[in-house]
TrEMBL record:
Entries under Pfam families matching the protein: Response_reg, Trans_reg_C
Name this polypeptide is given: Response regulator transcription factor
Domain OmpR/PhoB-type positions: 134-233
Claim: GTP-binding is one of the keywords in the record: no
DNA-binding region: 134-233
Domain of life: Bacteria
Amino acid sequence: MGDIHILIADDEKEIRDLLKKYLERECYKVDTALNGEEALRLFHDNNYNLAILDLMMPVMDGLEVCRRMREVSNIPIVMLTAKDQELEKILGLSMGADDYMTKPFSVHELVARIKAQLRRFLVLGSEGRSASEETPIRFNRLMVDVKKHLVKKGEEEIVLTAKEFELLKFFVSHPGQVFTKTQLFRQVWDSQYIEDDNTVMVYIRKLRLKIEDDPSQPKFIQTVWGIGYKFAGDSE
């Protein structure tokens, strides 16, 4: 895994050094930045496979760095937040972050989550896809091509982040099946527990904004009241 390049941005030197140490043990190449501006400069000068951004950083905060990264890249982004920053967590997910962890955190759990994010992001270019991943899936005007990591609504290409794509991919692979928020979190975020309902709800809302003609009356990702969500529509 020596070709995996990770960016860590945090104004706390102890956290930067600790994460760099553990990630380099996994044979990842790691760069660190002490503020958002430096992180963005490194991001534009290098090809990273994943970024870890502290929410509160001097010069430029993690939300703004995440927003600017998302303008040009869909690499996995993990946000680090404090316990009392619930609103900021939601904003981070809305800006395009794929996951977040609350400080203080278990470095072993963070490394495990990083591995899960990289596994999903990199597997799109690997061999051994199933037959369903080789053939584009069509639901009316919506087309999902897992092999090409491509989503279209009619002739319009829809740009999704890595996590948004994984969630949509999971939905279209199980049309008509109802899933609770916890089930979605376990399947898409590769975790055995859900920290709160907002993570799934934010991503459902983001997907609806991108793929639905009218997000307020979704035809694809439908709410099953009291249970969760299902993907509706006839495949072609």
